[in-house]
Amino acid sequence: MRRPIPFGAPQERSAPDLPGLMEHVARGDQDAFAALYDVIAGPVHGIVVKVLRDRAQSEEVTQEVLIEVWRQAPRYRPDKGTVMTWVLTIAHRRAVDRVRSAQAATAREQDTAAREHARPYDEVSEQVEIRLEGEQVRRCVRGLTELQRQAVSLAYYGGLTYREVAETLQTPLPTVKTRLRDGLIRLRDCMGVTA
Question: At 119, is the secondary structure helix, strand, or coil?
Fold first, then answer.
């Protein structure tokens, strides 16, 4: 039975004892959870909407958070923070997880689509192309004079400098430079490379 409120006295609404409610919820008290739900559901939904910006997903995540509060109530520690802070932390983390999950799903879909549209790598074709290019290079090198072939081989395959090539071939340096230049021009023309 309610006591009548004296005329002129302001009606005070007492704030619920959230830590006390949490103790009861931790013991499985459904009535205590209903009272806690009435207090936390609005703030939880508000923070979830701010993070997700999607009403339908926000309602779903809000329900997940409230279920998690029911299940995790025994883990609440008053010395670590208020009930509201604990609940809103759970809500924020769950909402952020949903955003990350959606972003990861989108990235996976884009990667899959990109792979489906990518041209398949044809290893056999590439090996044939490399072999044909190698044969063309060998054919073009055989078309050089003996001095050009030796100079090109020592300089480009042996890694020797112009001076070292000249010493190895016992040929004057200007002659080696000329033979290398002429040999490279002939190779370029034979290979069909445009300058």
Answer: coil
